[in-house]
Write a structure and sequence with these properties.
Blueprint (H helix, E strand, L loop, with lengths): L5 E5 L3 E6 L3 E7 L2 E6 L2 E7 L1 H5 L9 E3 L7 H17 L8 E5 L5 H13 L5 E5 H8 L10 E6 L4 E7 L2 E8 L3 H15 L2 E2 L2 H11 L9 E8 L5 E7 H24 L3 H10 L1 E4 L8 H8 L4 E3 L6 H11 L1 H10 L1
Parallel strand pairs: 1-7, 7-8, 9-15, 15-16
Antiparallel strand pairs: 1-2, 2-3, 4-5, 4-6, 9-10, 10-11, 12-13, 13-14
Helix pairs in contact: 2-3, 4-10, 5-6, 5-7
Length: 332
């Protein structure tokens, strides 16, 4: 039975690497910073170093997230970034890995990922859907006849999947996630406060005072540029104001959960109700989410304790349990 040393997740927000026998060894932003030269674009920073220079570089420097399943233009940057991260966890040439992927990828997109892994000098690589890893990380038993439903609110997308016998019976991917909320906060402040802030400030606001409670009194002072005077200005932002920029995204997730469940047979719905909908991903950390879902969703939910790392920790369990992993691979 083949052994796997690494579990890798290159998400829209973060890249995580779990090393068998060690645990979660790396978690850094999935970011590349590059600037144009006469010979093409030159990479100047990767991962956490790239995040540190957001809003602090020359105008021609691009900071972006390469997605390994996309077309050839992402290939080079995905390989460079993956190699950079693997070096940090003392990767040895040709070691095997499982690579976590979104559900619903085409054969071409899966092949693109495998090419990136080959370019990064990995050995044998198996692709495992993120919702299955998330279920394992959330303590669910995915290889039996009981149906589970998982909602993964990630950096660039939200995945909704119904799982049975290690198979995804039904799934939906929404093009909204944490980065969408950050951009919404930037637009909201420009419109309501006449204040221009960067994405990093918006992300900090979301994490510190973002809330789905209608009566939350959290607040935070930020500095931006006044749209009228073009000079720096500080403002105090309250969470109950910020909710206007945040809540619509969670409302859309609720609508999609409802639509997915409404299309399922009663027997499957009964299983989902009994086991509760598992909520994972960085977006599951939003304050007041549990209360919001109870008010707006007609089905019970369970927010995973370590929601932000549930998927990679589940993948870590798989590479540590060869028989469980093989059973899942046989059913994919």
């Amino acid at each position: 039975m083949r052994k796997y040393q690494y579990a890798i997740e290159m998400g829209g927000g973060y890249t995580s690497i779990y090393v068998n026998g060690q645990g979660l060894a790396l978690k850094e932003p999935t970011l590349v910073a590059a600037e144009p030269t006469a010979d093409g674009y030159k990479v100047i920073a990767l991962g956490l170093d790239a995040k540190k220079i957001i809003g602090k570089t020359k105008e021609n420097v691009e900071i972006f997230t390469p997605m390994p399943y996309m077309d050839h233009s992402n290939y080079e940057y995905s390989v460079v970034l993956l190699k950079h991260f693997l070096k940090k966890v003392d990767f040895r040439f040709d070691e095997n890995a499982i690579f976590i992927i979104p559900c619903g990828l085409s054969a071409t997109e899966k092949q693109n990922i495998l090419k990136v892994c080959e370019g990064a000098d990995l050995g044998h690589v198996e692709l495992v859907p993120a919702p299955i890893c998330a279920c394992v990380g959330g303590g669910r038993n995915v290889d039996n006849s009981k149906v589970d439903m998982v909602v993964d609110i990630g950096g660039t997308s939200t995945e909704i999947a119904v799982i049975n016998m290690s198979n995804i019976l039904k799934g939906a991917t929404l093009g909204i996630g944490g980065k969408s909320i950050d951009a919404s906060i930037v637009n909201f402040l420009a419109y309501t406060q006449n204040l221009v802030v960067g994405i990093s400030t918006a992300e900090t606001l979301k994490k510190e005072v973002g809330s789905l409670y209608t009566n939350d009194t959290l607040n935070m002072e930020i500095t931006g540029v006044d749209t009228h005077t073009k000079t720096p200005r500080t403002a105090v932002i309250f969470s109950n104001e910020l909710r206007q920029a945040i809540e619509p995204f969670y409302a859309e997730i609720v609508r999609s959960i409802d639509a997915t469940i409404n299309a399922l047979p009663p027997e499957i719905v009964a299983d989902i109700i009994n086991s509760k909908i598992l909520i994972v991903g960085g977006g599951a950390k939003m304050q007041g989410l549990d209360n919001y879902l109870k008010k707006n969703l007609n089905y019970p939910v369970e927010i995973c304790e370590d929601c932000e790392n549930a998927t990679i920790l589940g993948a870590g369990k798989l590479i540590a349990d060869s028989s469980l992993l093989q059973g899942i691979l046989n059913n994919l």
